[in-house]
Design a protein that fits this description.
heterodimer, A: about 85% helix, disordered C terminus, B: two-stranded antiparallel ribbon, two-stranded antiparallel sheet, 27 helices, about 70% helix
């Protein structure tokens, strides 16, 4: 596989990742959000494998496998279980209408490209084009956390931020050292477990998963004391 | 690193207060021993500071590097003429206050907080004058501020004391912030926290002005310069009287010291710009007049004294401002005279204001009240206190032969010389501030006629005044020492000025005593004080004192020739058979004419109410209530307070939004950082 061909594949995958970020932002059903999240994880694993193959960095294979297992299968499965048990798979309730959200998302993406342009010139890695996209994905995932009401979508947004950062790491430096990579992977896993536990606890205590309700309950509790 | 006797003694005095702060609180259960130990050690520290200050002035100080502090910045301590002079001021009041406290704290229930914070407070003040780098300076400065906060809120069971303490702490911190800003400006130019490097650094006029303004407002807040005086009239009355004596007597002076240290020493008189002196002069004049005007309308004895501290700080600043103006126009000898006048007034004010607060404390101690309207006739029950208080009253009113006259006279001499030197600016500003000073002096005399007359003369207006007892001899001795110093400084200024003269030698490289200037003040010529030349003006305090004694003696002998007995009879009451103590002039009625004259400034809030029961023309009872509030509080502090609260409420509203708002903040911050740094 020639270098330019590999670069084209990586650029194509980066474009797909950006598309998935937009898709995550535009979804209305909880389950489809989850599906797109899983797809992003799988795509990420594939990107890591391609970069590993073309750059000869064998450590990246391990990253790719971990990403595949963790972000492609385990986390989506855990979240799917939570959604099924809590019966929240109806609609995603956005705070902002989707049209406006998409317009903001496009602006943010343009901003990210504008910011990263001067940095890309200094890099000679074949993955350099993906850095702007990774930055855009980070910002879009944050936007998703802001514009959604349900706690689960926010957790998905958070995990998507982590995905984008991983993507940025591959893009900028051909991946972080393996030790760091493993550490982050476990952190994310633990975070997901804790989130899962919290969801049930919150459900038991407040009988609702909407953040506004949680706030109201907390404030009310403060006033009682 | 040169060490000397003076420096070692000053370190010894610091060590003594540290020991006091550690040892005295440990004796919590033996109150008598605790009080004795505290007063003894603090008094010892006072003696050491006096000795260190005096020898430092006469024979030079030295510097030392203490092995603790920041890892890269050990503590630099240095005793120079300026520091030595202020150390002398500190010592000369700490010693009498320590003796006074032995009596004053006799019935104090909670002695331990005082035993901790009083020595720390004194340590802070000593450290400030000894420090030779900005970090050490700020460290001791904050130690002084924070420990004095705990002293102000000593009787924290009363909510108004807590409020006064809070305002004090707030303004002290603002002052600290501004001073730190000033040091930061100097640090940016010199690249070092050490004062020796800061001295050598050359500041651009713009940065020098910024450093001057920051230092001026910072130290001005702490010194109580109008309009940054808001904390002072609240904090001084609520502190225990021995503490208010120290706070008013020397803490305000330490702020003056800091101001001189930064502007005169670290920046140097060569950097002065003309408007600096004018600004200081204006601040001084406004403080002097508004301080005394507010003092006239008070009927809380200690609050009145607190307003007089503002007035006297104003007088000191008038002297300093004149000196700064003259130094800018290269009249170094006259500048030295102005500086000496300011410093002389500094030590004078420390002594007589300390004495006044101790006297007020003695009255409070035996009557239990600070309200002047409840007193009267105390001269019969507390004759010694009354006599000592009278000395302080004469001193603060700037009447010969006491010390207040000498320093104000010197300031007038400086001011009177200024117009002859040409320059439209000097001619315009200086006479105005001299007139302000004269007005303040006259009003201060009025005010102390009121204080002494209402509190000590006449008949008792209440039972607490009628049953007052003379205070014990500890307190009397504590008050007698500053009274004696007031007299000595007033009678022998020609001996004390050459001692102070080392300070302008350090700061201006000019001396009033050296014959090269042709206008020497000679220590051997103790009889006459001639600041400029004999043809111009000279003052002989000993002759004045002799004249006063002679005239008084002759008058007494003429009025009471030998052999006649003094006839005591009932007072003539205009034919009215019944007299009552409430028919006397009181504090409110005495100040009524001035309330009319300055009604635009005071804007008094008056209420009159007459009760007429039987007939519309027969008035049975008249009630008159007047309240004069501080203009600065009404028009400056309250609006600032309202705006601050309004902003805080708006922020609180933002603060209590949901998690989405927080996420949005994060998102916006990330975008902003990317835009700025990428």
């Amino acid at each position: 596989m020639s270098a330019s061909f590999a670069q084209q594949i990586i650029d194509g995958m980066a474009a797909l990742t950006l598309l998935i970020s937009f898709a995550l932002l535009a979804q209305h059903r909880m389950l489809s959000v989850l599906h797109w999240f899983a797809a992003q994880g799988l795509l990420l694993a594939a990107t890591a494998a391609v970069v590993a193959y073309s750059s000869g960095e064998h450590e990246l294979y391990i990253s790719a496998i971990m990403t595949f297992l963790l972000k492609g299968l385990l986390l989506p499965w855990m979240l799917w279980r939570v959604i099924r048990k809590l019966h929240v798979h109806r609609e995603v309730e956005p705070l902002m209408n989707s049209g406006l959200t998409v317009i903001i998302a496009i602006t943010v993406t343009l901003f990210a490209f504008h910011i990263i342009q001067p940095i890309e010139v200094t890099s000679d890695l074949m993955t350099r084009n993906s850095m702007a996209i990774a930055t855009a994905c980070v910002l879009l995932s944050m936007l998703m956390m802001i514009t959604r009401k349900k706690a689960i979508t926010q957790v998905i947004g958070f995990l998507a931020v982590e995905n984008s950062l991983f993507f940025a790491a591959i893009g900028a430096t051909n991946g972080m050292p393996l030790v760091v990579e493993i550490g982050i992977a476990f952190d994310v896993l633990i975070a997901a477990l804790i989130f899962g536990l919290f969801f049930f606890q919150i459900r038991n205590t407040f009988d609702s998963m909407e953040i506004d309700t949680l706030n109201a309950s907390l404030i009310h509790k403060d006033e009682d004391e | 690193m040169t060490q000397s006797l003076a420096l070692n003694v000053s370190l010894l005095s610091c060590l003594t207060v540290i020991i006091a702060a550690i040892a005295a609180p440990m004796l919590q259960h033996q109150r008598t021993i605790q009080r004795a130990l505290l007063c003894c050690l603090v008094g010892l520290a006072g003696i050491f500071s006096c000795v260190a200050g005096f020898t430092g002035l006469m024979y030079g100080g030295g510097s030392i590097l203490l092995p603790f502090g920041l890892p890269w910045l050990p503590m630099h301590l240095r005793l120079d003429a300026l520091g030595a002079f202020f150390l002398l001021v500190i010592g000369s009041l700490v010693l009498p206050v320590a003796i006074y406290s032995q009596g004053y704290l006799r019935h104090e229930k909670r002695l331990t907080p005082l035993a901790i914070f009083l020595p720390l407070f004194i340590l802070g003040m000593m450290g400030v004058v000894l420090s030779d780098d900005a970090f050490t300076f700020m460290l001791f400065w904050e130690l002084m501020s924070v420990s004095s906060y705990f002293l102000v809120t000593h009787e924290h069971q009363h909510p108004e004391n807590r409020k006064a303490g809070f305002i004090y702490l707030l303004m002290a911190h603002m002052a600290g912030l501004l001073i730190m800003g000033s040091f930061a400006t100097l640090y940016a130019t010199s690249g070092s926290f050490e004062f020796s490097t800061m001295r050598d650094a050359q500041l651009s006029p713009l940065w020098a002005s910024i450093a001057f303004l920051l230092a001026g407002f910072g130290f001005g807040t702490k010194a109580g310069v109008v309009p940054m005086h808001g904390w002072l009239p609240d904090a001084h009355p609520v502190a225990p009287s021995n503490v208010s004596a120290l706070m008013s007597g020397i803490m305000l002076k330490v702020a003056i010291f800091g101001f001189i240290r930064i502007t005169w020493d670290l920046m140097g008189s060569g950097d002065f710009q003309w408007w600096w002196g004018a600004l200081v002069l204006a601040a001084g004049s406004s403080s002097a007049v508004s301080g005394v005007l507010m003092a006239l309308q008070q009927h809380d004895l200690k609050r009145l004294l607190a307003y007089h501290s503002i007035e006297n700080i104003g007088i000191i600043l008038i002297g300093l401002g004149l000196a700064m103006l003259l130094a800018h126009f290269d009249h170094n000898t006259l500048a030295a005279l102005g500086l000496i006048a300011a410093l002389y007034h500094t030590i004078n004010h420390a002594l007589f204001k300390g004495l006044l607060f101790m006297g007020a404390g003695a009255v409070l101690h035996s009557t239990g009240s600070r309200n002047m309207e409840a007193m009267g006739g105390l001269i019969h029950r507390m004759p010694w206190t009354a006599a000592l208080f009278l000395v302080a009253c004469i001193s603060i009113s700037a009447l010969p032969p006491f010390n207040g006259f000498v320093s104000e006279w010197l300031i007038f001499q400086t001011a009177l010389m200024a117009p002859q030197l040409g320059g439209a600016l000097l001619t315009a500003i200086v006479p105005f501030s001299a007139a302000m000073l004269a007005l303040a002096g006259a009003l201060a005399a009025t005010c102390f006629v009121k204080v002494f007359g209402v509190v000590f003369l006449g008949h008792a207006r209440s039972n607490i005044a009628a049953n007052a007892k003379e205070v014990d001899s500890w307190m009397l001795v504590g008050m007698a020492i500053p009274a004696l110093c007031c007299l000595l400084l007033g009678v022998l200024p020609a001996i004390f000025i050459p001692i102070i003269d080392h300070v302008p030698q350090l700061l201006l490289h000019t001396s009033l005593t050296s014959a090269a200037n042709g206008q020497a003040i000679d220590a051997t010529q103790w009889l006459w004080l001639t600041p400029i030349d004999a043809a111009h003006a000279s003052y002989s305090a000993p002759i004045i004192l002799f004249g006063i004694l002679l005239l008084g003696g002759v008058a007494f002998w003429w009025l009471h020739p030998k052999g006649t007995t003094i006839r005591r009879s009932k007072m003539w009451s205009c034919g009215n058979p019944h007299t009552h103590a409430r028919m006397q002039y009181n504090a409110t009625s005495f100040s009524q004419p001035l309330r009319r004259i300055f009604t635009d400034l005071y804007q008094p809030d008056e209420h009159e109410h007459a009760e007429r029961h039987e007939h519309p023309l027969l008035t049975t009872r008249v009630k008159y209530v007047v309240h004069v509030s501080d203009m600065a509080v009404k028009h400056l502090y309250q609006p600032i307070g309202h705006v601050t609260l309004w902003v805080a409420k708006a922020i609180r509203h933002e603060h209590q939004r949901g998690i989405h708002a927080y996420l949005t903040y994060t998102f916006a911050t990330v975008l902003l950082l990317l835009a700025v740094f990428a």
